[in-house]
């Protein structure tokens, strides 16, 4: 068949863009060739509604095997009792949990969106805010750390049925034990959405929320470094530190609820090619070098955060425990919005995104912050020395967001630098 130039030229163009630039979007990463091969395989042709061994279509014996491998590897990585690998995305994994444990109109408690929470944790334009009643906790203005006292106060007063931990722009470790205690006080379900730090958790570099939460969701494509998608997990539970053990039967009941919330609740046929790619990426997580990669992700982020602070930038919470750095531009450049900063950086082939900062004085379309992350650049082999160079380049652009000549010279440096950090084998 004739090559579809309209599309394949665009794919080539995107490949060039990825190769020549510095990728600092905290939620992005570069998957391996094998992960991409699995995604681009004949498994895309197969309908497999249902679950391994219990499908609504014939001919699923083969994809049953890859879905089972994905489940087994995922359980091994996080020490989970049960896993569902079918959610098409993180938001759909969260939607399935809402569907399994709440009724429309029920109250739940999540992190304020402008303090780092995700759309699916209660935004008024998302299913979570449209169909359920969101309550929120935030971070403390002086420290940038989660305000657990506020969380407890809202929880005791409002008695939500679900409490959600996890965020899209929060750089610090979570006190899952305290959250579980709060949930237990009011008999709420405690769910953690570990989409952002999942890779660091998988490598044992951050606390594993499965030890505390009733339900854990995640995306597979951020720090974890798999294909785009979602997952849901249940921990060994519920023998938590307070001895309130849930019988095995409860896990069975909850997993059955979650399975049917994913399919047929919010999805139809699973993407078996993506599930196979998830399995490949989970196999990579289980290799010893993965831990080294994640250690470097974390090291790079803390070196980068410190280098920005040394230059007088305000980093929310004054540093990072994970892969993510949230810069509050107002201290160093009071007139520079996140929107203008993002645009200037993109012109220099440095990709980052504008982001609200806690207690932001600007709208979500302008913002006073930018969010940076190290998972993607670390996959390309970057170490601390490159972080220092990147901080210099970002600083030059942010100090001169309207100066085309300076931006052009940074872009040339970015493109020359990235030649030494190979990305694709072809
Ligand atoms: N949960 C968190 C914490 C996220 O940051 C994101 C995406 O950024 C999601 C869920 C949604 O994932 P997806 O884009 O795959 O729906």
Automatic annotation (TrEMBL):
Q: What is its EC number?
A: 2.1.2.1
Q: Which Pfam families match?
A: SHMT
Q: Does the keyword Disulfide bond apply?
A: no
For the site labelled Plays an important role in substrate specificity, the residues are 221
Q: Which domain of life is it from?
A: Bacteria
Q: In which pathway does it act?
A: One-carbon metabolism; tetrahydrofolate interconversion; Amino-acid biosynthesis; glycine biosynthesis; glycine from L-serine: step 1/1
Q: PANTHER family recorded for this chain? A: SERINE HYDROXYMETHYLTRANSFERASE, SERINE HYDROXYMETHYLTRANSFERASE 1
| Known partners and oligomeric status | Homodimer.
The protein's name in its UniProt record = Serine hydroxymethyltransferase
Q: Which gene encodes it?
A: glyA
């Amino acid at each position: 068949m004739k090559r579809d130039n309209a599309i394949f030229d665009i794919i080539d163009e995107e490949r060039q863009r990825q190769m020549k630039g510095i990728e600092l979007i905290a939620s992005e990463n570069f998957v391996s060739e094998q992960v991409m091969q699995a995604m681009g395989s004949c498994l895309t042709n197969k309908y497999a509604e249902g679950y391994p061994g219990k499908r609504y279509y014939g001919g699923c014996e083969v994809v049953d095997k890859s879905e089972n491998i994905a489940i087994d590897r995922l359980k091994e990585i996080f020490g989970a009792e049960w896993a569902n690998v079918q959610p098409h995305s993180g938001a759909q994994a969260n939607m399935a949990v809402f569907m399994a444990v709440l009724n429309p109109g029920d109250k739940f408690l999540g992190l304020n969106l402008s303090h780092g929470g995700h759309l699916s944790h209660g935004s008024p334009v998302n299913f979570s805010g449209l169909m359920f009643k969101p309550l929120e906790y935030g971070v403390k203005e002086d420290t940038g750390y989660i305000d657990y006292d506020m969380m407890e106060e809202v929880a005791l007063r409002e008695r939500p049925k679900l409490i959600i931990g996890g965020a899209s722009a929060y750089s610090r470790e979570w006190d899952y034990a305290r959250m579980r205690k709060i949930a237990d006080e009011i008999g709420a379900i405690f769910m953690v959405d570990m989409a952002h730090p999942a890779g660091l958790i998988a490598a044992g570099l951050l606390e594993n929320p499965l030890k505390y939460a009733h339900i854990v969701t995640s995306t597979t494509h951020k720090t974890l470094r798999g294909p785009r998608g979602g997952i849901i997990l249940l921990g060994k539970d519920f023998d938590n530190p307070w001895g309130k053990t849930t019988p095995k039967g409860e896990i069975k009941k909850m997993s059955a609820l979650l399975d049917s919330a994913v399919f047929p609740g919010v999805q139809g046929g699973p993407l078996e090619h993506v599930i196979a790619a998830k399995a490949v990426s989970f196999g990579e997580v289980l290799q010893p070098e993965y831990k080294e990669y994640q250690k470097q992700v974390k090291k790079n982020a803390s070196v980068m955060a410190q280098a920005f602070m040394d230059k007088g930038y305000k980093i929310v919470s004054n540093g990072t425990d994970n892969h993510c750095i949230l810069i509050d531009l107002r201290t160093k450049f009071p007139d520079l919005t996140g929107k203008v900063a993002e645009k200037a950086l993109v012109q220099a082939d440095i990709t980052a995104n504008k982001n609200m900062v806690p207690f932001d004085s600007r709208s979500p379309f302008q913002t006073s912050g930018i969010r940076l992350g190290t998972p993607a650049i670390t996959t390309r082999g970057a170490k601390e020395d490159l972080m220092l160079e990147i901080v210099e380049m970002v600083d030059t652009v942010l100090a001169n967001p309207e100066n085309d000549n300076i931006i052009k010279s940074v872009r040339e440096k970015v493109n020359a630098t990235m030649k030494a950090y190979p990305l694709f084998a072809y």
